[in-house]
Amino acid sequence: MIPFHAFAEVVAYAAGAALVAGGVGVGLLYALRARSITTLLAVVSAATVLATVAGIVTITLKMLITDHDRSVTLTVTAIAGLVGLGVSLVLGHRLIAGTRALLGSVRRAGDDGRFVPPDRTLPAELDELAAELSAAYARLETARARERTLEASRRELVAWVSHDLRTPLAGLRAMAEALEDGVVADAETVRRYHAQIRAEADRLAAMVDDLFELSRIHAGALRLSRRRVGLAELVSDTVAGTEPLARAKGVRLSGLAHEILPVEADAAELGRALRNLVVNAIRHTPEDGGVEVVAGVERGMACVTVSDACGGIPEQDLPRLFDVAFRGEAARTPGGGAGLGLAIARGIVEAHDGEIGVSNAGTGCRFVIRLPL
């Protein structure tokens, strides 16, 4: 058995030689840190072999073994080192090939925005990176598609708003010029012109308010003052506020809440969304038709439905009904405006973490607002 002091001396010499070789390897890694992975792996392999050889040489000299034994030991160590170096080079080549294949896929994705992972087996880390890149490019494509849709909606909105502004402005100008030039002189006509001017001004002000509200929604600047609100009270207020319009149109309007349903919401904003739906339903329901507003619970969520008798909406128009400025065969917006009412309703409901949808039901449509209880 080797004495302890001799064993400790061997360990000390071997550790010293290994530390010197390791220090040289670390220095080379730092100096070559910008080179390829293959070069770095070769340095690691060479440093390992060098540390082993240095330790063996030091130990054999200390132990005074024969030259033959020393030669055999060094030869075996060198062969093992060369094999390790070869394995390191093969591994480095595989890593570089996988990295370059992944880089090529990224560069090709820059042309059309679609990322296609390399059709070869990659190391686990590179394969995980490829999966993350695929998911990231998919999210980017979704964002681009939404941006294109929003841009198309903005252009369509500008076109509709320009058209809807031009008509009342032309009427306002004509009536103002008639009053200014004295073309209209009798008191009855003057009063009628004044009333029309006031009505058109109110309509334009409402359109500007809608545009401002929609811009806040799209900019994420809609600030909600949430408090506990009863849906029964909200339905009652909405029905009371729209009853004059329904009476003038000859439409039966009713509201019903099956139970007291408290939700955390901004009463003013949520009331505006519901009012948009009810006014929309009244305007598209024929005389003697009915509009019903019902609050209840569906699938664990507070639910408000607005059912009308408009005759239904073409199925192909249903998915786009809440888009900005969308108009199907018949506009589904309050007052036949610029297509903002339903878009505003959707923005407000979604800001409350809710859902809004529409479907054909019976002789008309059924608009549904769902909110967390």
TrEMBL record:
CDD domains: HATPase, HisKA. It is found in: Cell membrane. SMART domains: HATPase_c, HisKA. One of its GO terms (biological process) is cellular response to phosphate starvation. Its main location: membrane. It comes from the Bacteria. It holds the Pfam family HATPase_c. This is Sensor-like histidine kinase SenX3. It comes from Actinoallomurus iriomotensis.
